[in-house]
C-alpha cells in the first residue's frame, strides 16, 4: 500500500522524462523494476556499454531502502568499479539502512550510480571479490558492508 | 578514577581476583539497572539545574557519558540543549503538527492543504502518516530509539521524545521507552547484557576492547550462563576473542567440504585449483589454467612421451617438485583437520551434555530410591556432570587456540596440560556410563575425579591466561 502509492507517482514522473543516460526498461508491478544506465561522459572505462539495474521494493518502500543490484546478460556486463562486485552487488552507503533516506527515489539512486561510475578511474573489482562472489549467499540488504571509502 | 564507571560506589566491593584466568565482574538485575539510571539522572540533574526529564534526554543524547556532558554543558549550554532538542524555543514552541500551504511530502509525494505535517527544528517537513510509518519502522522493525535521525537526506538531527510523543501511538511509545532503557546498558562501555534468551540481567566489567588480546574475560551471569564479556559469545577460554572469530570463520568456510576434498582431490600443480578426478585417464588438463599434467606423478604431461596411461616416472624432477608443493598444501589441510576434528568432537560432546545432565537427574532420583542415600548425598552426580560440561567447553577451545599457536618452549607445557585435562575428562566421562547399582560404591572415586578435572582445568587456564597477559604466546596470525 505504502510503496504502491509512491511508486505509482514515481512511475508517472519517470514516464514523462528521465535524465540523459537513464532508461526505464520494465516496471510491470510495484515489486521489481529494471532500468538501464550508461555513462554519458567520456570515461574510457565505460565507453559504449549499457548496464542493467534491478530494483526490488518492499511494501514499506520508501521507508525501507530498495534492494539494488546490477544484472548481467549478453548485452549488459557488470561495470568495473572498486565498489561493485562481479555478481552485481553494490557497496554504497546510500543503499544501506543507515545511509538511506526515504527522500531518495529510483531516479536519484540511478543518478548516484551513474555519477559513481563517471567519477571512477580504476578499472578494478573490490578487494576480495572472488571470495565474496563465491561464498556470498546473503541478500544485499542483509550484508553488513563496512564503508571504508567515504569518497564515492 | 579515570573512567566513567557506572557504579563507582560498588567498585570497592569487588572481591580480589582468585585465579589468573578469572575476571572481576558484577551482575545487575533489571531493578538495579533502572535504579542506577535514576541515581545518575538525579545526580546530573542537580549539577545542571535541569529537570530530571530533560536531564534524561541529555544523558541519553550524550551516550551516558556524564563527565563529557557536564563539561560541554558548562562550556556551551545553548548548543548542548539545542542539539538534544531542549532549547528555549523548543520549550516556548513545543513540537506540533501543522498544515502548510503549497506543501508536498517528499516521501509519499502527496500534496494538498489538508495534510497534517511535521518538522523538527531542522525544517525537514513530511506528512504525519509518513513520519509515523518511518518512526514505527525504526522502533518496531530496527529496534532503534535514542538515535533515530530525521528522515531527511543526510540530516543528523535526532528525533526527541517530545516530538515522538505527538507522532506515534501508545504501543510504539511503550516499545520506545523499553528500548531507551536498554540503551543505558548498550551505551556504557563497562556494561553488557547477558546474551542468554530472555535473561534481563546485565554484567559490569572493567575489561575494555583494547585489553582483549591479553585477556579472555569470561563472566558468569546470575541466570547461570557463562559468556565472554568481550564478544558476548559462550565462554571460550583459553582462546582470545580475535582467534575465536577467525576460527569460527574458518570452520564455516572449510569444515563441511574439507574432509571430502582431502579424500578425493589433488591440486593443480600450476595454479593450485582443487581438482576432482571423476574417472578417465591420468592425462589431466586443468579447467582453470589449462596446465596439462599427470594425475599419478603430478609432473608435466609433455614429458611423459609415449608411456601414456601407465605412469612410472616417479624419479623425475618436475613431478617431485609438484608433489612437494602438493604435500605442503595437503599438510596444511591435515593440520587444520587435526585440530578441527578434536574441536568438533568436544563440541559434539558438549551438545550431548544436555542429555547427560537430564539423565543424571533421573539417575539421582533412582539412586535415592535404590540406596539409602539422601538428596544431598547424590548431589555428587550433578557436580560431576557440571564439571564435565565446563571442562569439555574449555578443551574444545584449546584446540582452536592450539591451531593458531606457533611453537616455542611454552607450547609443550600447554600440550601437556591439554593432554592431562583430556585424560581426566575421559576418565570421569566413562564413569557416567556405569550402571546405577555401581554408582553408590563409586561415589568417593567420582568425587575425586570431579575435583581432579576441575583442578586440571584451572591449571590449564591459569597457565594460558598468565602467558597471554605477559605476551609470551606466539601466534601464527596477528591478534
Automatic annotation (TrEMBL), chain A:
List, alphabetically, the SUPFAM superfamilies matched.
Answer: UBC-like (SSF54495)
- Give an example GO molecular function: transferase activity
Domain UBC core, which positions? 2-152
Q: Where is the active site?
A: 91 (glycyl thioester intermediate)
Q: Which Pfam families match?
A: UQ_con
What are the UniProt keywords, alphabetically? ATP-binding, Nucleotide-binding, Transferase, Ubl conjugation pathway
Q: Does the keyword Cytoplasm apply?
A: no
Is Repeat included in the keywords of this UniProt record?
no
Task: Tell me the superkingdom of the source.
Answer: Eukaryota
Protein family (similarity comment): Belongs to the ubiquitin-conjugating enzyme family.
Task: Give the protein's recorded name.
Answer: Ubiquitin-conjugating enzyme E2 2
- According to its UniProt entry, this protein's organism is Clohesyomyces aquaticus
From TrEMBL, chain B:
Which reaction does this enzyme catalyse, per its entry?
A: [E2 ubiquitin-conjugating enzyme]-S-ubiquitinyl-L-cysteine + [acceptor protein]-L-lysine = [E2 ubiquitin-conjugating enzyme]-L-cysteine + [acceptor protein]-N(6)-ubiquitinyl-L-lysine
**Is Nucleotide-binding included in the keywords of this UniProt record?**
no
An example Pfam family from this entry, by short name, is UBA_ARI1
Instruction: Cite the entry's keywords alphabetically.
Output: Metal-binding, Repeat, Transferase, Ubl conjugation pathway, Zinc, Zinc-finger
Q: Give its E.C. classification number.
A: 2.3.2.31
Q: Which GO terms describe its biological process?
A: protein ubiquitination
Q: Does the keyword Metal-binding apply?
A: yes
InterPro entries for the chain: Ariadne (IPR045840), ARIH1-like_UBL (IPR048962), E3_UB_ligase_RBR (IPR031127), IBR_dom (IPR002867), TRIAD_supradom (IPR044066), Znf_C3HC4_RING-type (IPR018957), Znf_RING (IPR001841), Znf_RING/FYVE/PHD (IPR013083)
Gene3D superfamilies, sorted: 1.20.120.1750, Zinc/RING finger domain, C3HC4 (zinc finger)
User: Signal sequence: where?
Assistant: none
- Domain RING-type stretches: 101-315, 105-153
- What PANTHER family does the record point to? RBR FAMILY RING FINGER AND IBR DOMAIN-CONTAINING
Q: What is this protein called?
A: RBR-type E3 ubiquitin transferase
Could you tell me which species this protein originates from?
Clohesyomyces aquaticus
What taxonomic classification does the UniProt entry list for its organism?
Eukaryota, Fungi, Dikarya, Ascomycota, Pezizomycotina
